[in-house]
Amino acid sequence: QKEVEQNSGPLSVPEGAIASLNCTYSDRGSQSFFWYRQYSGKSPELIMFIYSNGDKEDGRFTAQLNKASQYVSLLIRDSQPSDSATYLCAVNSPAGNKLTFGGGTRVLVKP
Amino acid sequence: DTGVSQDPRHKITKRGQNVTFRCDPISEHNRLYWYRQTLGQGPEFLTYFQNEAQLEKSRLLSDRFSAERPKGSFSTLEIQRTEQGDSAMYLCASTSDGGADTQYFGPGTRLTVL
Q: Which of B42, B100, B108 sits opposite A101 (nearest CB)?
């Protein structure tokens, strides 16, 4: 079992719709969770981080965390073609000294 | 620009040659990380510095790899006797103690070993 798992996609979403991305992790000691966006050929760009169970909203993005289920999700509302990218879920080690990434979910927003 | 910078952005080398990459973190960040990313995969952790001390190394970091951060500012990653399997994007990230553990990535160095 991989430490951080994501569906590789592609997740095809019509423009204006909600994109829902999921991520599961194996280390129950993990305390901080991150979503990065990565365009082809570019480096990861931080979108959001979340530490507490529940929802955290930032603009069109909402991160959801459920530590009991070891599950993190990202919702993208009003999806735009510019949101087309690979979204990486990352989990910090309990010691906080490294991120473990999932393989990423590729999102395609179609006009 | 006060973000993380990396140099060079691209490097093409022949198998067996040595290469060195440089990372300059965000100025107030004392933690620095190196990751490697191959096509279609998420970044994989290589090593971590807190100030000038290298505190953790991944098993991915074979004897051919060495990293330094001599004055706790910029860092270098050297690969000796490169192999075709070393072809990847090498990413540097930084963050600060007591912060949100949020790592900010540089633009990466893309290495191609022929």
A: B42
